[in-house]
Specification:
By secondary structure, the chain is of the alpha+beta class. Helix content is 30%, strand content 38%. The chain folds into two domains: 60 residues, Nuclear Transport Factor 2, Chain: A; 60 residues, Nuclear Transport Factor 2, Chain: A. It has three helices and eight strands.
Length: 149
C-alpha cells in the first residue's frame, strides 16, 4: 500500500511538471511583422492604432487591435490592399432600424453578440447571434433593417 501511494505521488508530481512545461510552450507566440505596404495601409485607415499581426491561411495579413474601446480585426493583402474589417459591437451601437427588424422578426430572442462586417465595395452589415434558451441563430442585418438568415 505504501509503495502504491509513493508511486502515485511520484506520477502525479511528474504529470504536474510535464503539464506545466507544456502550458509554457503553448503560450509562446511568434510576432509577425507585415510588409511596409501593409503597415502603411493600416495606418492610413486606422491612424494611431497599434495592432497584433498574424498571417492568414490565404497569405493575407490580419491585424487585431482596439479602436474606440472595441475589438477590431482588419485584413490586408500582401501588397497593402484593405480587404475586410470586423468590429465587435454592443446592442446600443446597432442602428435602430436593425434593432426594430430583429425584435419584430424574432420576438422573445435576445441578442447575444453583434459584429459589424465591412468589405471593400460592399455596404456594411451586421452579423447578429440571437439566443433563446438553448437555441442559437446567426442572422445578417443591414443599417436599413433588412434581415437575411
Amino acid at each position: 500500500m505504501v509503495i502504491a501511494v509513493a508511486l502515485f505521488g511520484t506520477t502525479a508530481a511528474t504529470a504536474q511538471t510535464t503539464h506545466h512545461h507544456h502550458a509554457a510552450k503553448t503560450e509562446t507566440v511568434k510576432a509577425v511583422t507585415p510588409p511596409d505596404a501593409v503597415l502603411t495601409a493600416f495606418q492610413g485607415k486606422f491612424s494611431g492604432d497599434t495592432a497584433t499581426w498574424a498571417v492568414t491561411p490565404s497569405g493575407n495579413y490580419a491585424a487585431t487591435f482596439m479602436s474606440s474601446g472595441e475589438k477590431e480585426c482588419a485584413e490586408f493583402s500582401a501588397d497593402g490592399q484593405w480587404l475586410r474589417n470586423r468590429t465587435d459591437m454592443t446592442l446600443d451601437q446597432l442602428p435602430d432600424p436593425a434593432k426594430t427588424a430583429l425584435q419584430s422578426k424574432y420576438p422573445g430572442m435576445e441578442i447575444a453578440s453583434i459584429q459589424k462586417l465591412e468589405y471593400n465595395n460592399v455596404n456594411p452589415f451586421y452579423k447578429v447571434n440571437l439566443k433563446q434558451g438553448d437555441q442559437s441563430k446567426d442572422v445578417m442585418v443591414n443599417d436599413a433593417g433588412y434581415v437575411q438568415e
